[in-house]
Amino acid sequence: MNTLKTLTRNFHSCGHECAKVVPKNLKGRGKSSQEWLTRQLSDPFVEKAKMMNYRCRSAFKLVEINEKHGILKPGFTVIDCGASPGSWCQVAAAETNSNKAQETKPVGLVIGIDLLQIYPIPGVHLLGNADFMKDETQQNVKSILCERKVDCVLSDMAPNATGIRNLDQENITKLSYSVLRFAVLTSSVDASLLVKLWNNGDVPQLEKDMLRFYKTVKMIKPVASRSESAEVFMLAKGFLGLKS
Ligand SMILES: C[S@@+](CC[C@H](N)C(=O)[O-])C[C@H]1O[C@@H](n2cnc3c(N)ncnc32)[C@H](O)[C@@H]1O
């Protein structure tokens, strides 16, 4: 029971994230709460994230993608959309050296945005209580950038699921296009864009639209992403730049 309390108190589930050890005391809990705890306790990424001080198991999705595709480097400027509780920002701060942990390496800039409040993370500019879809939020990000071009835009944003499939799909697609538009307007040539999607009918069109601006577009399902989850990531690399 103590383990359960500790897990639920100190560790974020990232919405639908996070664990097969069967917890002993599940009395009085609803079915979905029981399933969540069971999943949580059986998930190796949950334990690993606690050991490595990541706020959330989602960190390993970005770690894996970055190891394979090299999208984060020391000195890079990174925008993290849908950043709460902050594990992607933690990874980005370490990889870009925005936390100045490596004295001899260039220092990057990481900006994290979320509808929710985010506890401070060393080396990261955080915009909490901010809706990325609002022009005001994007202007705030641009004023932090101060003409600096972006090397990598990340989006792990997910709308609150309404349970109405078509509406949920429409909402996540809207988020993706908002991120694509922002990335196109702020990125440096050769920059990358990583966007979370739910594998739905809009994916081929989004892929086509991304290919107008990037050299390559790839669908990725990281090992840390649960197989039963519809989430996939679209990685666009090699931003071609805007003609004017
Ligand atoms: C799966 S969580 C992100 C986890 C994060 N990548 C991490 O590693 O800690 C998705 C986040 O997207 C945020 N989100 C959804 N819609 C948003 C919007 N319009 N603007 C900003 N954040 C949004 C949610 O509040 C939620 O915190």
Automatic annotation (TrEMBL):
UniProt organism field: Pseudolycoriella hygida
Key words, A-Z: Methyltransferase, Mitochondrion, rRNA processing, S-adenosyl-L-methionine, Transferase, Transit peptide
Coiled-coil intervals: none
GO cellular component: mitochondrial matrix
Stated name of the protein: rRNA methyltransferase 2, mitochondrial
Main location: mitochondrion
Similarity section: Belongs to the class I-like SAM-binding methyltransferase superfamily. RNA methyltransferase RlmE family.
Compartments in which it is found: Mitochondrion
Biological processes annotated in GO: mitochondrial large ribosomal subunit assembly
Keyword Ligase in record: no
